[in-house]
Amino acid sequence: MNLADLVETKHALGYTISVCLPARNEAETIAGIVGEVRERLVDSCSRAGGGLVDEIVVIDDGSTDATAEVARAAGAAVVSESELLPEAGPGSGKGNALWKSLYACRGDLLCWLDADLRNFDADTVTRLVEPLLAGSGTVLGTLLGLYRTGATQDGFEAGIQLALEGLLVSPNFLMRIERDPSNAVAGAAYRISDLELASRLSFFLWSSIPDDELLEAAGRGTLKNPTVLEQQVRRMLRDPRSAALVSNFFGQWLYLRNLRTVTPDPRIFPDFDENLREAFQRETELFLESQLREDRNADNQCDQADGDQNLDLC
Questions:
Q1: 55-60 and 77-80 as β-strands: parallel, antiparallel, unpaired?
Q2: Pairing relation of β-strands 77-80 and 17-23?
Q3: What are 58's strand-pairing partners?
């Protein structure tokens, strides 16, 4: 979804978006971030009713430099952390400024940014809000509905609590769901977006979320390019996180996980013990890791003689 479509969707749903930067002594970087967000997401994409971002708020957490003045001059609203909920008592660290910012921002959707980022790109914000606005904003709408119900009955804290409870039990939070497009023909292949490709690739190779480099390629729309895709796959396989591919994918495919339940006949294998059981699995995992790291032919898996030699196995 491009920026113009995001703005149209946001206004059609009637939502407002706040960008918040908790900051302490970030005078060197704060102006660049605020200026980039204002130029790209407030001014240049504005239309009747506003742009993608409705307000930029800096929570100044006791800065001793000119952070507040610089941020204000760049176009942000500046709120002192010490003036927010003084009855809650003093706190320390970014977490304190984060939760207090909920009281300072007016947006239905709040996007937090680090205030020390250099070479900041406003696409970071669009990537954060797009999943919430996509699909007619049903996820955001559900959470906002829960918040408003709780807030109407027992105030702000009750609204936040009910929304968090709804988030934590949502299948979208507990599971990674891959949905077919609404216009997909049953049994037919269809092209997925670059962001979906990044997610599937990362969870397959790393069993974790995409990193910044992968998301940047997806955000530029270049990940589907075969050359870029190969470069990213090779980079990810070199990363230590690719060990998850061995433990998860190969662990299921080759039934390595079943080793923990295997109990050989002690009369035939009297020397079998837990150390040997662990060695069987670890030796196989190390061998498979070497195949991936060294980009060896799959045929070698059946006749490879070398590898990590465990004395118990020998």
A1: parallel
A2: unpaired
A3: 21, 78
| Cα–Cα distance measured from residue 260 to residue 266, given in angstroms and rounded to the nearest whole number | 16
Q: How is domain 3-124 classified at the architecture level of CATH?
A: Alpha-Beta Complex (3.90)
Structure tokens at 184: 């997909």
DSSP, collapsed to helix, strand or coil, labels residue 100 as helix
Contact 60, 25 (CB under 8 A): no
Q: With a cut of 80, say whether residue 62 has pLDDT above it.
A: yes
Query: Residue 11: what residue type?
Result: H
Q: What is the rounded distance in angstroms from the CA atom of residue 226 to the CA atom of residue 208?
A: 22
Which tens digits make up the pLDDT trace of 228-245? 999 999 999 989 898 888
Copy the structure tokens of residue 148: 């408003």
Q: Where are the domains of the chain?
A: 3-124, 134-180, 194-238, 242-303
pLDDT digits (tens, 9 = 90+) for 13-60: 888 899 999 999 999 999 999 999 999 998 776 555 678 999 999 999
d(Cα 115, Cα 125) in Å, to the nearest integer? 13
Condensed to tens digits (0 to 9), the pLDDT of residues 285-308 reads: 888 888 877 777 766 655 555 555
